[in-house]
C-alpha cells in the first residue's frame, strides 16, 4: 500500500520519542508534527534528518483504513493501547 498523500495521520496521532528538527524532545501523541506542512505532507520526507521511526513506518490497510479519518482513529487507538 502507498501512503495517501495529504493524510498525515502518522504525523499527528502517535507519540514520537526521538528528536525531530523543531521538536528536540520528540512529539506527544495527538500533537501535529512541526514538519507537517499545510497539505499534510512531511517536509523531511526523503531527507537524512527524518527520524528513523518515521522512515520505518509502512502504511498498510489495517492501520490506514480507507480514509484519512480512519487512519487517524486507528493510529490513535493503537497509541492508547501501548
Q: How does this structure look, described?
A:
This protein is mainly alpha-helical and 82 residues long. It has one domain (9-81). 28% of the residues lie in helices and 0% in strands. It contains 3 helices and no strands. It has helices spanning 52-56, 61-64, 68-81. The longest helix is centred in the C-terminal third of the chain and has 14 residues, at 68-81. The radius of gyration is 12 Å and the shape is globular. The model has no long low-confidence stretch (mean pLDDT 95).
Brief digest:
InterPro entries: Puta_zinc/iron-chelating_dom (IPR005358), UPF0153_domain (IPR052572). The chain has 82 residues and is mainly alpha-helical.
Q: How would you describe this structure in keywords?
A:
82 residues; mainly alpha; 3 helices; 28% helix; Puta_zinc/iron-chelating_dom; UPF0153_domain; YkgJ family cysteine cluster protein
Helix and strand arrangement:
Layout: H1 52-56, H2 61-64, H3 68-81
Q: Report Rg.
A: 12 Å
Count of discrete domains: 1
**Classification by helices and strands:** mainly alpha
Largest sheet: none
By DSSP (H or I, 4+ residues per run), the number of helices equals 3
Helical residue percent band: 25-40%
The shape is globular
Element order, helices and strands? HHH
Mean pLDDT: 95
Q: Kindly state the number of beta strands.
A: 0
Low-confidence stretches: none
Strand content: under 5%
Termini separation comes to 24 Å
Amino acid at each position: 500500500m502507498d501512503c495517501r498523500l495529504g493524510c498525515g495521520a502518522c504525523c499527528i496521532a502517535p507519540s514520537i520519542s526521538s528528536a525531530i528538527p523543531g521538536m528536540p524532545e520528540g512529539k506527544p501523541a495527538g500533537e501535529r508534527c512541526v514538519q507537517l506542512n499545510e497539505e499534510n505532507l512531511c517536509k523531511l520526507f526523503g531527507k537524512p534528518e527524518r527520524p528513523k521511526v518515521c522512515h520505518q513506518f509502512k502504511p498498510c490497510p489495517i492501520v490506514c483504513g480507507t480514509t484519512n479519518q480512519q487512519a487517524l482513529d486507528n493510529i490513535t487507538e493503537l497509541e492508547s493501547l501501548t
